[in-house]
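FYI - complex with flavin mononucleotide, inputs then prediction.
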Amino acid sequence: MIRASTMQHFVAEENRLERSPDIEDLKGAFSRLPSGVVVITSTSACGEFAGATVSSFTSLSFKPPLVVFGLAQSSATLSAILSHGHFAAHVVAEPHQDLAMRFASSGTDKFNGVDFKLSPFGVPLLTQFDTYFQCTLERAQPTGDHQLLVGRVLDVSLAGRNATPVAWLQRSFHVCERVTAL
Ligand SMILES: Cc1cc2nc3c(=O)[nH]c(=O)nc-3n(C[C@H](O)[C@H](O)[C@H](O)COP(=O)(O)O)c2cc1C
C-alpha cells in the first residue's frame, strides 16, 4: 500500500515536472554537451549576404543526404535562407574560431575582409574553410522560438588540410584530442 505522504510526494514531483525547467538550468545543462560548430551562409532576397554561427547542425539522413539545424526566429540568416532557398555550412576548426565568433555577432558587416567566392546559386562560400556543405532548403518548420530547417546536401568540399577539430563546450571552444586506448 502507498502511504499518503509518498502519494503527496509523487503529486508534487509530477506538478514540478509539468512546469518548464529554469532557463538558466537548461542553458547550463546544454553547455556541458560538446557540439560541433558550423558557419551557415546564405543570400537575402535583395542580394545581401547573411551568416550565422550554429551548433545545432547535424546529419539527419544519408539516402537522401539531409542535414538539420535550428535558427532563432529573429535570425537574419533564417530570413535569407527562407527567401533564397540555398545555404552553405562551413565546419569550424581551430583556425576559424575568430571567424565563428564574428558570425555569432549581430549589427556588423560579417563579410568585411573575409575571403569568399560565390556558389552557382549565389551563396558565399568562405574560402578559409577546408570542409563545407552546399545545400538546398527542403523543409522549414516553426518550432518554439526557433525554426527547424532541413537541407538536402548538393555538394561537399573536403580539402585535405586536416585542421585541428574543435568543439563548443561551456561557452568556449576546446581542441578535440583522441582519447588514448586503455
Ligand atoms: C557556438 C555558437 C553556437 C550557436 N548556435 C546557434 C544555433 O544553433 N542556432 C541559433 O539560432 N543561433 C546560434 N548561435 C547564435 C547566432 O550565431 C547569433 O545569434 C547570430 O548573431 C545570428 O546572426 P544573424 O541574426 O545575422 O542570423 C550560436 C552562437 C555561438 C557562439
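The mean pLDDT is 93. The helical segments are 4-18, 23-31, 76-84, 97-103.
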